[in-house]
Model the fold of this input.
Amino acid sequence: MTKLKFVAAVSVLVALAGCNVIASKTNVLTDDQIKSQAGGALGYSPEELTLVSRRTEGTNTFAALKSKDNQQFNCIINGGNLLTFGMTNPPSCAKKGQPPVSATPFGG
Done:
């Protein structure tokens, strides 16, 4: 790899890392928005869900939820930050311990 290609590759990685930091720091998803979006994907009303925990890494918000009928789910919501103008993709959710099922036709 030439020095120029190496510098370009490092620059791209630094820029991507910066975007992830910006996305994480500017996440605007509220707990109610997470419950509403996850509920829609899971077939529950937001009132039937309790948000057990959440964490944001880069452009993804990871949420653990529990339903009133004692089902536990994990969801991933992509977006909801400055870089996406607050917009999100449909959540990917699954029962706890199973891989998430994408709500989009292409698994994205």
The CA atoms of residues 80 and 86 lie 4 Å apart.
